[in-house]
């Protein structure tokens, strides 16, 4: 199997000799075999393990087992624990979807932080078969027909070529120990029902079902490549981003052939379903402000664009800022603080990312928090109050971006609508002797 593994990764150009790969390892047979193959192939790798906290002590024993595996192979080990059930309930998604969101977000964070080239998962031919059948049962587009891809961006599946039976033969031959997940036997999970009940029946019709599906998948993938070339050209023309927020020109979509199919492909990255895309398309001729939610993102139909933001999966807690603090970080930005005597020729910066304030009017500690309905301030240049919700509407800030607006307050009064405008009461005047300069880095 090692020779097949090396041939496969070379033929599919999955890994170069200089690449560092992060292996997603559960402790089950498939991921343990993947570790062994990587070790024997002398590929630079590390192990990442997710403890989803769904099977009590058994989950903790899996974690211990995988840690010992990393010691055996003398590779770095990363582990994290998720409150998966709580996350699934809060986000109104299935346990399987919750686990998927949590683990891939964490894997990507590790990859960037530790400069791995790829993330490898241990999906194989039987997983591909089960995925195709599951997608067909629930309804799917062209992507669902290819099942699990060999390579998807930085995600690679280096044992995609192998059948489960071949993997089992490998562990027997090499006397490899693994952990058996007791939940794999439970048919309450849809994938297990496909694996344990449906596939055996289909193999009575076609004993070579895995190979047949693999050939079909490869043919569909070729057709899909042609289709996605068109989608990517379209994406470059009508989708743009500032790094955190995505915008889609929906007026252009209305002129396309098969617009809902193409809209679905454009929004698939944000986990919107075909049915939701039908509703989104139907909203194009209606008033702006309609909101749609996927498990991971929020989409607002604005005046001429769809505005898409990552859902706030963890609620932001307010931050207290003391007089000696020079930096404050959130998940979305960083604020740098500096207090200094005003130079004679000082010019107040006008860019939105700056707040230039009269330091003697500021009372510490400050508070950084999200804006809420009813908040008000006196926008720079005005000597009267204005609701921040009205100000944001005047600035044509889409609904989902309004929710991500932060305020910096002093003694309960808003000093700065972050990245928008300062409060007139705290502005620098001719009488200002000391300046508080705040810069926002997104």
UniProtKB/TrEMBL annotation:
<feature type="binding site">
    <location>
        <begin position="26"/>
        <end position="31"/>
    </location>
    <ligand>
        <name>ATP</name>
    </ligand>
</feature>
<dbReference type="InterPro" id="IPR014729">
    <property type="entry name" value="Rossmann-like_a/b/a_fold"/>
</dbReference>
<keyword id="KW-0963">Cytoplasm</keyword>
<comment type="similarity">
    <text>Belongs to the tRNA(Ile)-lysidine synthase family.</text>
</comment>
<keyword id="KW-0547">Nucleotide-binding</keyword>
<dbReference type="Pfam" id="PF11734">
    <property type="entry name" value="TilS_C"/>
</dbReference>
<dbReference type="InterPro" id="IPR012094">
    <property type="entry name" value="tRNA_Ile_lys_synt"/>
</dbReference>
<keyword id="KW-0819">tRNA processing</keyword>
<dbReference type="InterPro" id="IPR011063">
    <property type="entry name" value="TilS/TtcA_N"/>
</dbReference>
<dbReference type="InterPro" id="IPR012795">
    <property type="entry name" value="tRNA_Ile_lys_synt_N"/>
</dbReference>
<keyword id="KW-0436">Ligase</keyword>
<keyword id="KW-0067">ATP-binding</keyword>
<dbReference type="Pfam" id="PF01171">
    <property type="entry name" value="ATP_bind_3"/>
</dbReference>
<dbReference type="InterPro" id="IPR012796">
    <property type="entry name" value="Lysidine-tRNA-synth_C"/>
</dbReference>
<dbReference type="GO" id="GO:0032267">
    <property type="term" value="F:tRNA(Ile)-lysidine synthase activity"/>
</dbReference>
<comment type="function">
    <text>Ligates lysine onto the cytidine present at position 34 of the AUA codon-specific tRNA(Ile) that contains the anticodon CAU, in an ATP-dependent manner. Cytidine is converted to lysidine, thus changing the amino acid specificity of the tRNA from methionine to isoleucine.</text>
</comment>
<protein>
    <recommendedName>
        <fullName>tRNA(Ile)-lysidine synthase</fullName>
        <ecNumber>6.3.4.19</ecNumber>
    </recommendedName>
</protein>
<feature type="domain" description="Lysidine-tRNA(Ile) synthetase C-terminal">
    <location>
        <begin position="366"/>
        <end position="438"/>
    </location>
</feature>
């Amino acid at each position: 199997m090692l020779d097949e593994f090396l041939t496969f990764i070379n033929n599919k150009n999955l890994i170069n000799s200089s690449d560092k790969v992060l292996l997603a390892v559960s402790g089950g047979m498939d991921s343990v075999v993947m570790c062994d193959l990587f070790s024997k192939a002398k590929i630079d790798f590390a192990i990442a393990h997710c403890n989803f906290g769904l099977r009590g002590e058994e989950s903790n024993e899996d974690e211990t087992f995988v840690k010992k595996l990393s010691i055996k192979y003398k590779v770095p080990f990363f582990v994290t624990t998720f409150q998966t059930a709580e996350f699934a309930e809060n986000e109104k998604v299935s346990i399987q979807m919750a686990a998927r969101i949590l683990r891939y977000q964490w894997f990507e964070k590790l990859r960037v932080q530790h400069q791995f080239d790829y993330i490898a998962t241990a999906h194989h031919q039987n997983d591909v078969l089960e995925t195709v059948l599951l997608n067909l049962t629930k309804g799917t587009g062209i992507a669902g027909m290819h099942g699990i891809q060999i390579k998807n961006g930085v995600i690679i599946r280096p044992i995609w070529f192998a059948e489960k039976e071949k993997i089992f033969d490998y562990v027997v031959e090499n006397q490899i120990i693994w952990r058996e997940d007791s939940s794999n036997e439970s048919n309450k999970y849809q994938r297990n029902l496909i694996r344990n009940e449906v596939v055996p029946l289909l193999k009575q019709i076609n004993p070579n079902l895995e190979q047949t599906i693999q050939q079909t998948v490869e043919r569909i993938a070729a057709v899909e490549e042609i289709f996605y070339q068109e989608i990517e050209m379209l994406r470059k023309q009508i989708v743009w981003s500032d790094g955190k927020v995505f915008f889609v020109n929906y007026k252009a979509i209305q002129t396309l052939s098969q617009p809902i199919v193409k809209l679905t492909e454009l929004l698939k990255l944000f986990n919107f379903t075909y049915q939701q895309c039908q509703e989104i398309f139907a909203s194009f001729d209606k008033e702006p402000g309609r909101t749609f939610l996927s498990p991971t993102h929020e989409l607002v139909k604005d005046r001429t664009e769809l505005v898409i933001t990552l859902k706030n999966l963890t609620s932001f807690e307010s931050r207290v800022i003391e007089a000696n603090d020079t930096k404050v970080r959130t998940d979305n930005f960083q604020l740098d603080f500096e207090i200094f005597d005003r130079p004679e020729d000082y010019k107040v910066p006008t860019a939105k990312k700056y707040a230039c304030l009269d330091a003697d009017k500021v009372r510490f500690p400050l508070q950084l928090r999200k804006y809420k309905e009813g908040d008000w301030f006196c926008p720079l240049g005005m000597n009267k109050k204005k609701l921040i919700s009205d100000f944001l509407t005047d600035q044509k800030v889409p609904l989902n971006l309004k929710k991500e607006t932060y305020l910096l307050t002093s003694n309960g009064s808003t000093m700065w609508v972050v990245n928008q405008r300062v409060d007139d009461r705290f502005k620098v005047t001719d009488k200002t002797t000391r300046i508080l300069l705040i810069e926002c880095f997104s």
